[in-house]
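[job 4417] fold queue: 2 targets
>>> target A
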Amino acid sequence: MKPVPILFLIASGLVAACSPSGGDASAPSVAVEQSARPEVTEPHRPPAQATCEQEIGAEAASVLVGQCIQMSPATHPPCNAQNSCDMIRDEIRRGCGFGDTTNNPDFCSDYQ
């Protein structure tokens, strides 16, 4: 007996076993699968966070932005009043702790 026909029979049997049969009542229909999916009306959006300017006012936000620009080591820092105050303060904190801190401005002591 040659091994090739045996492999062909085994492969054919596996394909037939994986094929859907018309009379199998346990197989879910397409309509059931679609009705089981939750209805999505609109994509999930995180709640809008207030800008720093909205949170503490334009003048105070401007002070934070100035400190951020002065201290940030980043090439594109998040020093913008349209970002959250927390993000700006984190960048000031990071800048104040970056490198040699002996000549840091006095305001850095507020971010330790």
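>>> target B
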Amino acid sequence: MHCDAQDDKADRAERRRLEEVARIKAKLIVAKLTLAKIDELYNLRRGTAGNAVHEPHLAGERAIAAALKTRPHLLWRTRYYPDGTRRDPQPSHHYRHARRDSHQVGAAA
């Protein structure tokens, strides 16, 4: 059977994202930190750090990285270029709830 290249690319991107989340969560466990504690320590709204693990959120990413004594681009390799600059805009597959493109919204109406 022939595998669609686009599906394969999406699967690889999702796998990389899930591995990234697992790696970050493991680092938090080793450091004996909770995402709620990071929210509290860095004066973030409750749930910000938890959301930042899964979806791009600059303040949450910076707080988690600071709590782990590292830099955000070393934790989220899919969200940053190797030189540490942030990818802008973030690819849609970085979001748990995929955002609709403007042409899709019009088509649904």
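[job 4417] complete. Note on B: The chain has six helices and no strands.
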